[in-house]
Sequence to fold (612 residues):
Amino acid sequence: MSKNAWQDDRGNKDRTIANPTGQGKEFPVEGRGKAVRVEGDSPFLIGDCMTGGYGTGADILHDCTVAVEKGEIAVIVGPNGAGKSTAMKAVFGMLNLHSGAVRLDGEDITGLSPQDRVAKGMAFVPQTSNVFVSLTVEENLEMGAFLRQDDIRPTMNQVFDLFPILKDKRRQAAGELSGGQRQQVAVGRALMTQPKVLMLDEPTAGVSPIVMDELFDRIIEVARAGITILMVEQNARQALEIADKGYVLVQGGNAYTDTGKALLADPEVRRTFLGG
Amino acid sequence: MDPINAIVALLNFVIIPGAAYGAQLALGALGVTLIYGILRFSNFAHGDTMAFGAMCTILVTWLFQGWGLSLGVLPTALLALPFGIAATALLLIGTDRAVYQFYRRQKAAPVILVIVSMGVMFIMNGLVRFIIGVNDQNFLDGERFIISARRFKELTGIEEGLAFKTSQGLTIVTAVIVVAALFWFLNRTRTGKSMRAFSDNEDLALLSGINPEKVVTYTWIIVAGLATIAGVLYGLDKSFKPFTYFQLLLPIFASAIVGGLGSPLGAIAGGFVIAFSEITVTYAFKKVLGYLAPGGWEPDSLVQLLSTDYKFAVSFAILIIVLLFKPTGLFAGKSV
Fold:
């Protein structure tokens, strides 16, 4: 994947000496920087002109900008390999940016590590392996609230109200749940920090259409509660319908940016991307 | 036929020593398994970490003995143990900062970390020999036996003697306490849960705000505790010699792998499996069978499957059998 000699693990499949699942894949921002207040008018959350890629590999994002206003839903759509998830991870500090900035609520947070961003009120739900499979549902939620020192019971009850099935399964290992239930655990885990911004990477990937509709309903419910949502979606049509703002990325850059409705109505977008 | 004497002989020569040795291996394997689960590599320096911890404890024990401090019937080493753990924790965290952290930042392939740990092993090995020498060191004091063979015979009137050494009793009791404390920590405390979460899914732990460096530091401290306790108990039970600790690496790894790397429960089970197989295979059953066999049928030979010199071959054989037929171990590792 990269020219990094440290990562070449040819012949390294022996579970007895080396853990094939290995370390995490992300190269998070080291987190030596500080949040800096910036003057001027800026959206609530913005990844501004981001350029960067994973580790020492090639750049994936080129001058990519995504922004979302408080309490709104922004959706990033685009063809496979367009860098949608990468853009999202860049906003969360899961890769080092060569240029560009990330600002949240009037503060420049480009230099903050992911865990510092969590403390600032951001929460991220990855697309895959987004639950701790060996931990129980309840422990998953507790880990979501890891940074909180106050009583987490009320928040946990709110999550159980939002996803009632989780309450029945709270002593079960998350790895034993179905795909849709896992997604609920994943979203619930992210909500445990009481975030200001919830970032979802393809929350409906691999779940049945019925579960998908329900998940979208829940996401709208979360947004109504005043939580800003930034989301990457494969089901572009459905996602853009609920989006206040839509971003179409192509090859790591912005192709079209508009409100969700306008993008759905735009003949160019429909022709090239939504398939008529 | 004399089953009582047979049972006593079996207890004396197989079950009690096996349980003590098993407990020592289990503690060692727990350390290996924790590092595998959280730092994602097999730590070949673990045997020498045990030697370093035991050495520090011995030095402090000698100091205390010089001052005339003692714990009465219990070995003074127990008093020195916290100091040994602290010194070992400092060494491990120092090693991590100086060596492992660099490779972690690079996301080095786990096999590279294994080789790195081998380098660390040789350095620790040299360090221990340089400080305390290569010879046997005896640091056991206090009462030697909970019950000695002669007293047992006097008390019960049974022909066969049963000796229960203080070090054996201490090993089993300490191991039970340590394991209970470790499981409580991993399953009940916030830090312990964050360690399990990190072991389960490193990237997601990061997203939840868990600081990887903190988890790693806690892991090294716990491993220092486990390794030092295992090393000191082994030293009390047998004797302290740096080379035997280096050799212990094999049964310890065998235990961890047999149980399933990354599974603490597996490490404990594996420790006892390896210990009991080593001892039963190398024990001469002549005496036990002599008591059990009907008159005139007593075996003439020693009835010993393997000479004790080959005891490492036993753990190696078990290791290979498990790897061939159930590579993930008895408890299918991975999660800590």
Summary: Chain A is about 30% helix and 20% strand. The mean pLDDT of chain A is 86. The first helix of chain A runs from residue 84 to 92. Chain A touches chain B through 47 residues (CB under 8 Å).
